[in-house]
Amino acid sequence: MDPHIAELLGIDLDDPEVQRENAAIDRDMRLIETLVGIRRQRGLTQSDVAERMGRSQPAVSDFERLGGDPHLSTIRRYALAIGVDVFHSVSVPEEVSQTSSTPAKIEVCGWESARPQTSATASISLTRAAP
């Protein structure tokens, strides 16, 4: 965020919570940019992807527009339509994981097939922080 705009809005860019939120937004945008880049590398048009997703081309265009906020299910359908998998990882801040029974890191890894007759497989890994 532009520092001048942040100042006008009363947002403290040095606040750790604001920095975490901005980092999360950046990761979301990079995920969408990466998926769109893969679509283009594979020579797929927005219409190709829309057909595979069972959506309209304008819906795919909206998904690809920066600043959107797609549902996780839409990200998954888009990824499957371009032939890739998206994996999820949850990291718990160190101070929280050390004071609770919450694992320090949770990774959800799985894959799905675009063919309905093939079953999906998933695994979940939980890691505790060292005391």
TrEMBL record:
InterPro entries for the chain: Cro/C1-type_HTH (IPR001387), Lambda_DNA-bd_dom_sf (IPR010982)
Domain of life, per lineage: Bacteria
Transmembrane regions listed in the UniProt entry: none
SMART domains documented for this protein: HTH_XRE
Pfam families reported for this sequence: HTH_3
PROSITE patterns: HTH_CROC1
Domain HTH cro/C1-type: from-to ranges: 35-87
Gene3D superfamilies listed in its UniProt record: lambda repressor-like DNA-binding domains
Coiled coil: none
Protein name (Swiss-Prot/TrEMBL): Antitoxin HigA
Organism phylogeny: Bacteria, Bacillati, Actinomycetota, Actinomycetes, Streptosporangiales
